[in-house]
Amino acid sequence: MESVVVILILLVAVIISGAISRALPLPIPLPLIQIAVGAVVSLAGDMGVKLRPEMFFLLFLPPLLFLDGWRIPKDGLKRDRWTVLEMALGLVVFTVLGVGFFTYWMIPAMPLSVAFALAAIVSPTDPVAVTAIAKRSPIPKRLMHILEGESLLNDASGLVSMRFAVAAAMTGSFSLIAAFGTFLWTAVAGLIIGAATTFCVTWVSNFWNNKFGEETGSHILISLLIPFAAYLAAEQVDASGILAAVAAGISMSFTEDSLRNLALTRIRRLAVWDTVQFVANGVIFVILGEQLPHIVSGAAIVVQETGHHEPIWLVAYVILINLALALLRFIWVWVSLRFTLARAYRRGFKPFVPSWRLVAVTSLAGVRGTVTLAGVLTLPLFLPDGSPFPARDLAIFLATGVILISLVMASVSLPFLLKGLELPPEPSHQKEEERAHIAAAEAAIKAVEQAVHNWGEGRSDADLYTSAGARVMANYRDRLADQNISDADAGNTQKIAEIERRLRLEALKAERQTYFAFGRRHQLSEETTAKLIREVDLLETRFSNG
């Protein structure tokens, strides 16, 4: 019963934090508000939530990473694949070495292996936090795709690095060859298992649906279970469950076309996954806030081990580590950019040269989040000889502080850096969209003509089929007429389309109010009222996104 009450309190905290975020005049990221609400809940009444890292990883990370992999634009990921890999692999190693030695120099009481473990766990950026920041501080699309791709892949490299640093702390030895072999197996096996899971489940589901029909609820439930299946299967063979969930999500976007689900299934599945994403993201950061008072008190107890007797040094450590992370990231991005521009010049191209502000945006947008929190909590409690793991509470506090400060730094600095920033032009897909509209309309007209011929042939009421077909095809012929315009008229056509969209929204609002009124007066049955309102809602959703 207590667990149920705790879950309900967490859900209410997510709702309250969302309401506060909408009411605040300042663009404060939602995760920061959720952390603050969680801390208030903990101080008001300790819920006694014991955060078990393995459960945390299993419950929250697979669905969120699966969804990010599912929805990330594949064209952008393919185009910038080398940049993403540089940041997901090379930058992680660079950060572990740089921040590890810096932390050891700054806090001599923390063993070097533990400092490396801390550096490894704060090196991965978090896709959940990156997305949350981007909602309040719009980031250029291409840069956002790079950040998302990096955060999806660098979790494995960071966690594997942490695993070897912890092993060195426990045994006092380290093997570079063994580390590389383990990393290779962890990454490759995780990716293969994730992709295989999605393709196998999709094939079985598609076969069953074709033979016995599709049931919307079951299909949605299957999509919710795929990331957990991929994660658990990978973990069973000591592969990366995180990469397996990401690979399963990316594979899902390629298998959707073969599924040919009902439109109703796609609509409801989208709504369910949006809700899962909102709830999981919110609960993660509320739990972090709820744990914050305990983390601070635990770190304050061990702060004297560092040679300083004032708790304010804890804050100084956090700020300095964040500055080191941002500086190393800035250096890596700048050097990588120089090499990219040099290659382009050698090939005879004249690429866009971004300003230092865009490099700074890339550096500060690499915020930390849930993976860092869950990873640092997996640090062992004791060494093999039974003595306490050195500086464990301090490492947990520093990692938590890095999450908070990185969110604050990004939310404060990004709006300033992005204001008036000159960006490379985004590629326009208008022509491709127009060609697709024309091809789709022509295919639709041919399909209607063929259906009218097949269905009306030899019937006494064939004229009814002809009349109905003409009405359906008129809409598609109007679309073709709209597409066959000159470039000079394109601007006016877009303005007309925008005005028409707004007029349709006003008309749909009036329709909905009328249906509600008829329902209240019992001039329509409840079932019919719900059906008509849903039709209007779907149309309004379409034109609202238009």
Give a summary of the structure in a few sentences.
This protein has about 550 residues and is mainly alpha-helical.
Describe the fold and architecture.
It is a single chain. It is built from 20 helices and no strands. It folds into two domains: 1-418, Na+/H+ antiporter like fold (Up-down Bundle); 430-484. The protein has 546 residues and is mainly alpha-helical. The chain has helices at 2-23, 30-44, 53-71, 74-79, 81-106, 112-122, 127-136, 141-171, 176-212, 216-236, 241-259, 263-302, 312-346, 356-364, 370-376, 392-418, 430-456, 462-483, 490-520, 526-544. The model has no long low-confidence stretch (mean pLDDT 80).
What key phrases describe this protein's structure?
546 residues, 2 domains, mainly alpha, Na+/H+ antiporter like fold
List the helices and strands and how they pair.
Blueprint: H1 2-23, H2 30-44, H3 53-71, H4 74-79, H5 81-106, H6 112-122, H7 127-136, H8 141-171, H9 176-212, H10 216-236, H11 241-259, H12 263-302, H13 312-346, H14 356-364, H15 370-376, H16 392-418, H17 430-456, H18 462-483, H19 490-520, H20 526-544
